[in-house]
Here is the input.
Amino acid sequence: MFNIILFGPPGSGKGTQSEKLIATYGLIHLSTGDLLRSEISRKTPLGLEAKSIMDSGQLVPDEVVVGMISSALDANPVAKGFLFDGFPRTVAQSEALDKLLALKKTTIGIVLALEVSEEELVHRLLNRGLTSGRSDDTNEAVIRARIIEYQNKTSVVADYYSKAGKVVSVKGEGTVDQIFASLCSEIDKRMSI
Ligand code: ADP
Here is the structure.
């Protein structure tokens, strides 16, 4: 099993690159943002609770997302590996993920950190908001709030995995194919160890 965390701020291209990576490496895509939006569209109690938090640009509680990930891992017992996108977003989530993976006798193989400037992030998210139907992408104040949440709570997740020597930074600006090639080259190096 080879498990990957695709890490980076909102708008850094995690969703776009995830689609290409899962197709190439046969991984199961676990995006907490997508899982939460599915709960919202199905109007579940969890979705109703999460919607207002997401619309304000804040993080939903750790136990909510950890519960969703735990169920998704259990639902895929024979996976070749998982690609985590938008998770973990706090150190508590990272610790919980390590424990869940240890129970399955596996671990994180690599954390790929996409590096994109803040002005480029805001520009991309406002553009995405024109077509994505995502209410959190249409308001610049909400976008800035998400970036601040990232800086305050999520950027430390990279430090957590750096201690284990698992983080590789990749330039997240350029064409989609250029960035994808950089990601693949880092994965291939680690997979062959
Ligand atoms: P983006 O990274 O582009 O902002 P996501 O789809 O990953 O988009 O997340 C959208 C929102 O969903 C976040 O702003 C947050 O409110 C919530 N969310 C997603 N993943 C998590 C997580 N792991 N922990 C807490 N909240 C999350």
